[in-house]
Amino acid sequence: MSVIAQLQPTLMDLAARYGQTPESAVIEILSASNEMLDDMVWIEANDGTGHKTTIRTGLPKGAWRLLNYGVPAEKAATAAIRDTCGLLETYSEVDKKLYEMEANPQEWRASEDAAFVEGMGQTMGETLLYGNSRDTPAAFTGFSPRFNDIAQTNPANKRNILDAGGTGNNNTSIWFVVWHKDTVHGIYPRGTKAGLQIRNLGEATKEESGGLMHQVLRTHFEWNAGVTVRDWRAIVRIANIDVTALTKDASAGADLFDLLAQAAELLPRKTSGRVAIYANRTISSFLRRQSVKGANVRITTDEQGGRTVTKFDGIPIRRVDVLLNTESRVF
């Protein structure tokens, strides 16, 4: 494993560390529906099912001193935060008799379980973007509730929310994220393994109403995870993009490339983290169409892992389809 993978491990890196080939296959299925997992760094929580961290909210400024006069003592301002993990869990059951009738029963059962894997991947992606533990205490708080107030004065992360001008409920967002252990990263409970855990519970008797019973094969799915934002400067949200007003030549509606340029300038200049842009397929489509209106030298494409990756100023643009086109305006 490379030094970068050791310090900033994705789910694929951690699966390789565990030596768990089955989990690697599962992670690839999840990545197909939520490309954030290609970049997301995962760190074991330091406080049981939660993660405590300290963020710096102010720096000492110093003071000009006259000879024979003193200056006041100062200290850096910090704030302690604790993010928690949520437990996403479900079971699948298949009729044992159906399993026995299949020509390739193991492959058939895996295909049945794949739907659960896909669904949980989408739920995790939705929570990462929109989750709010105040509304759903069992879940964790994602990005949108942390970057949802343009008019606020404290904290100062309003400067990292760009307003694309949409006013109704047909809006979407584009997110810039710098993944790193010191900026933004996923967390999983201490003493556990990161990622979706799948366990074959074997045969069980299922009881239905009226005393009816039949034999099933049961699988348990469990994913315990959360997210920590240590440095708000490492996230930029382009909010209020009215998808109904977009045009292929940017003659009306949001000028996506102008907004991307503004967002890129807000990121920290020096970073060793993984930087990526996340948008849904509607935005991805209009980015392609708006890029042909002229010679847009900021857009490039290359091959990564057998896939064509579009980049803006060298930053990969990932597709995340759980990003809604029905977001309300962020004020």
Overall pLDDT confidence: 88
Radius of gyration: 23 Å
Secondary-structure-based class equals alpha+beta
Number of domains: 1
Uncertain regions: pLDDT < 50 for 5+ in a row?
none
Tell me the strand order in the biggest sheet: 5-10-6-11-14-13-12
Q: Give the total of beta strands.
A: 14
Protein name: Bbp17
Pfam families: GP7
InterPro entries: GP7-like
Summarize, please:
With 331 residues, the protein is an alpha+beta fold.
Which SSEs are present, and which pair or pack?
Blueprint: H1 3-7, H2 11-18, H3 21-33, E1 42-44, E2 50-58, E3 77-84, E4 86-95, H4 96-101, H5 105-130, E5 161-163, E6 171-179, E7 184-188, E8 197-207, E9 213-229, E10 235-242, H6 256-266, E11 274-279, H7 281-291, E12 299-304, E13 307-312, E14 315-319
Parallel strand pairs: 1-7, 5-10, 11-14
Antiparallel strand pairs: 2-3, 4-9, 6-10, 6-11, 7-9, 8-9, 12-13, 13-14
Helix pairs in contact: 2-3, 3-5
Task: Name the features.
331 residues, alpha+beta, seven-stranded mixed sheet, five-stranded mixed sheet, 14 strands, GP7-like, Bbp17
